[in-house]
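3.2 Worked example (two chains)
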Amino acid sequence: MSDLIDKMEAALSEALADLDAAADEKSIEEIKIRMLGRKGFLPAAMKEIKNVSNEEKPLIGKVANKVKTELNNKISEKLDALEDSGSAVDGIDVTIPGRQRKIGKKHLITRVIDDCVTIFRRMGFVVVDGPELEDEYHNFDALNTPADHPSRDSQDTFYLLDGRLLRTQTSPVQIRTMEKQDPPVRIVCPGRCFRRDTPDATHSMNFSQIEGLHIDTNISMADLKGTLLMFAQEMFGEDVEIRMRPHFFPFTEPSIECDVLFRNFKGGKDSWLEIFGAGMVDPNVLTNVGYDPEKVTGYAFGLGIERIAMLKYDIPDIRYLYENDIRFLEQF
């Protein structure tokens, strides 16, 4: 039965020579299939072992194991060599520079929210969050919004079939916090809001707000003015000024709008731009959450994150912030 042994050794020698000459994975795989595949040389040779004597079978089996082991070792070595050379895959030009992994960064809206939160935290405010899907009580009733107020109309607010709605402001977070916590309260509430606005350069159906609330004893309009001034100077620079104008909000009394003076604004002129809506918390709101308006007072304020971003980074259209054009976002 030496002829079978000779055939196996000859086939091994031929396969090892072919492996030395192989230049890619495809050639190596073909050699492996030819020698070790289900219909390859070695399985076919082992089928002939039934025709030999019992004395010869161990010797032939030993040679067959040697062929299989040497061939597998050689195949592994060849594949490793090809991988190290960078040419293991057909069609790859190993002289082309590799792809650089780009490091991501925060979206501009997220960055502005973080900047606002950092400023307010230095003033002692705590960040709280709440649901974007709200009920009418927390979004309107508890905030002293009358039943006939235009903002409660379905043309202004997104309602669900079960009567719930997408919050139109982050003020409901203030209500939920006061329901759970006795004074003092000093919080800011950043988050997304939703209104049925027609999208244009300055309006969007979804937008981001950050609102603040400070409830304690002897809180006055002077405290509110100091807070807004400090924020404006921290965000836009120490040379900015603020002015407060009378306004109306259902949940504050008195209510104000606060403008910020930007020096050398577009075109080099000094310009007053409205940034904040604010005021002293209406006593009815305090009563709704179980506070005694005779013992505590407070102020609330709100500002739009997109408006801050547009002013700070000179962005002409709010829609740029949501189009996810990488050419635009990479600038920041």
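3.2.1 Second chain
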Amino acid sequence: MTDMSECTIMVVDDTEANIAILVDLLGNDYDISVALDGQSALEDICDNPPDLILLDIMMPVMDGYQVLAEVKNDPRFRQIPVIMISDIDEMTSVIKCIEMGADDYLPRPINAVLLQARIGAVLEKKRLLDKERLYAESLEFNMEIGRQIQNGFFPDSLPQIDGWQIVTYFQASRQVSGDFYDVFNLPNKDGVCFLIADVCEKGVGAALFMALFRTLIRAFSELYYGMGLPDSFDKGSENCSLQSTGGQQLTDSNYTCALEIIISHINNYIATIHDKANMFATLFWGIIEPENGMLSYINGGHVSVVVVGKNGIRTVLEPTGPAVGMFPDMSFEAKRIKIYPGEFLIALTDGVTEARDVNGGFYGEDKLMQLLSLPVESAENMLDSITKNLAEHNAFAEQSDDITMMIIHRS
């Protein structure tokens, strides 16, 4: 709204003489519409919302206070500025109108200069607010597109593995997230790859790097385990080196060595090419061999992953290296552990343990560990128990961080 002559002003007054004065003063500068009572004004506002309302206070049937309340309580019209006009010049009336949402107040008799000044100021304020609102709506629209694109990075479905169950949970604190998880079969069909990660910071930057981390892990996994490239590794005294074995089945050292090579490549790429962004991610990346229950994994500075057995928590898989992408040439160690029948593996992001209640208190690791020690029959039961307990803790509190969980059960 840059041309004031294009603005529509609605005059609401039951006295024709008062209307005539306002039309005479404003008719050359604005498009004027008239309503003789409050009810008619509300009907006209619904049909053709004006840019500004000049509203008389003292009217029969429905006075100006009632009309003002209806306009300001309706989300469709509350942005329309309202200037109250009345013979009443008592301060209590002015205060009441302002408290109800009126943008300004003019006493009678109308001063032409003051009228034009008040209208100009209110319309300029509305123009700026409209511009800000349109910009916010544009940002909202683009963020929604980003959310939809990011959702495409999560797996549509999880691999179905005989004797195993995998369930996941994800709840972003904003439209886009720095948390992510992935589960996919390796090209050699010998293992199932899974990961859970948390990119530092929040918002758009974290979401962009979430996509980068996830894509690099997928791409390098395809490169090292498929596409006809050598799929076996030989671990030397310090570093793994790629050795061709003509497509032999992977061995224990192959799995751990491959993880170390891939994570080192990704770490060096992020820390070198994108060093100015100062972005990194904590992650837990594992490969499960379904037939024997062996898990090869790297914990890159991530929240500890818990293995729960029939008698409660059996072990905690602590970090085996730093967060990924902080500095080049960092050392990452892959380890192996067996997941026995009946055991659960629980991986999550710190959005769980650092979830706050209305008083700012953390959910905490102790509370989580107590819950994980309770017997459950399935991964769904365990996930349901955690989410319900977390919801009780977070009741009425705003979610401060992304929450991601993955539970794997060997049945």
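3.3 Remarks
The two ends are 66 Å apart (CA to CA).
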